[in-house]
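User: Is it possible to get a 3D structure for a protein together with its bound compound? The compound here is flavin mononucleotide. I've pasted both below.
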Amino acid sequence: MTGEAIPEEILFSMFEAARHAPSSHNSQPWRFAYARRGEPDFAIFLACLSDQNREWARNASALVAVASKAVYTRDGSAEKNVSRSASFDAGAAWACLAVQAELLGWTARPMGAFDGDLARAATHAPDSLKIEVIVAIGKRGDSSPPERQTSEKPNPRKAMDEIVFAGGFPADC
Ligand SMILES: Cc1cc2nc3c(=O)[nH]c(=O)nc-3n(C[C@H](O)[C@H](O)[C@H](O)COP(=O)(O)O)c2cc1C
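Assistant: Yes, that's possible. Here is the predicted structure of the complex:
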């Protein structure tokens, strides 16, 4: 990533896309904490990442912690419900954010390799939140060090017949 500054309205356009994701009972369990490059929080968020991620993500324009909140209330009721799909729904929100980033000429990469305790402290996340990923957002750079280049080649996908099945799942899928 190039490390260029990301305008707040661009970043919020990505959050706007994420906000419109579908969720079970419209519980909207996604929460986002962000730090833009140049802000003091950026270094604190960066420090949560694995060494390998930190090496390249230091050139991100923003780091976004995506969290899910499983407990929710419905339509003004005080009754607490626990969503079985909070992580799934937060994943849908992340995907919407990523598509919007690409549409705007930016890129977003999620990272699961981070220290959970550090991330909780860095983002002040209460126990009710599960931090799912930290996302690096930036403009794609022209070059990267040789050790990163293999992982930056387009990744293959499983063939359709390995993932889609008529009538049910085979035992070995
Ligand atoms: C939950 C999750 C965690 C991931 N963690 C990391 C990570 O820590 N570091 C990284 O460089 N990429 C990470 N990725 C990116 C995946 O490695 C990448 O999406 C996958 O290899 C497919 O590559 P592609 O998206 O470029 O096609 C993660 C992706 C997901 C969905």
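The first strand starts at residue 30 and ends at 36. The domain at 8-142 is CATH 3.40.109.10 (NADH Oxidase).
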